[in-house]
Design a protein that fits this description.
alpha/beta; Rossmann fold; 18% strand; globular; binds NADP nicotinamide-adenine-dinucleotide phosphate
Length: 232
Amino acid sequence: MGNALSNQTVVVIGGSNGIGAAVATLAQTEGARAIAISRSGAAPGGVVPIVADVSDLLALGKALASIGVIDHLVHTAAARVSTPALPSLDESALQSTFDIKLFGAIHAARLALPHLSERASITFTSGQVSRKYGTGSVTKGAVNAAVDAAGRHLAKELAPRRVNVVSPGVVDTSLWGEAGSETRSSTIERVSAALPVKRVARPEELAAAYLFAMTNGFVTGSVIDVDGGGLL
Ligand SMILES: NC(=O)c1ccc[n+]([C@@H]2O[C@H](COP(=O)([O-])OP(=O)(O)OC[C@H]3O[C@@H](n4cnc5c(N)ncnc54)[C@H](OP(=O)(O)O)[C@@H]3O)[C@@H](O)[C@H]2O)c1
């Protein structure tokens, strides 16, 4: 147990699972009142759950308004959709990817604004594919690059509040399939072999980067790469 976030309120949109759940857990361990917003309303032990879909602006606004003063807003929510190569790309995958990850993050910042403390931080989530180019990655690449840009623009607009973006490489979460499934294990094995560090990340390693963004008062407008050397 630490106290880096004592007496502070940390809201994690997407805090029911994966990276967001690890952020909420770490925030709670560091003394914060940690709140996880998601559709399922699941939350790690000690974290307060709130049910809201980030694409339902009325519900999201109500959820954020019910919390009181927010010291740190984190957005990790993303749609679990396949984003195939261009010929097979359909409107709904493209739309929901942008709805949840980009528009969700921007609307969350907008709706949280009246509730943010004077020196609050906001941390968005993008991904290395914003700058790792390849076939079949146009949707994810474009949405992540847009999240990086949105974070940097808002860092200027919302100053002295700070806005940063954490950009993960491959992390072992259910984004890659159910725990123990063949799809998830084979993806992780293949990616691990190609990385300089020879393994993918644990969600807790990403959570440490969000904690850094929340607690270091000199960091703003940064895109923090936590990718095991994936961009090299
Ligand atoms: N895992 C990786 O390798 C990796 C790599 C690069 C970038 N990223 C990014 O990191 C972020 C977190 O990924 P993850 O691996 O932790 O994914 P995850 O395990 O699938 O978690 C996603 C979270 O988002 C929530 N969520 C999804 N749709 C939502 C909605 N409409 N409204 C509210 N909450 C919603 C989910 O909760 P409910 O289902 O309960 O709503 C869940 O808590 C995403 O932006 C992802 O693109 C991940």
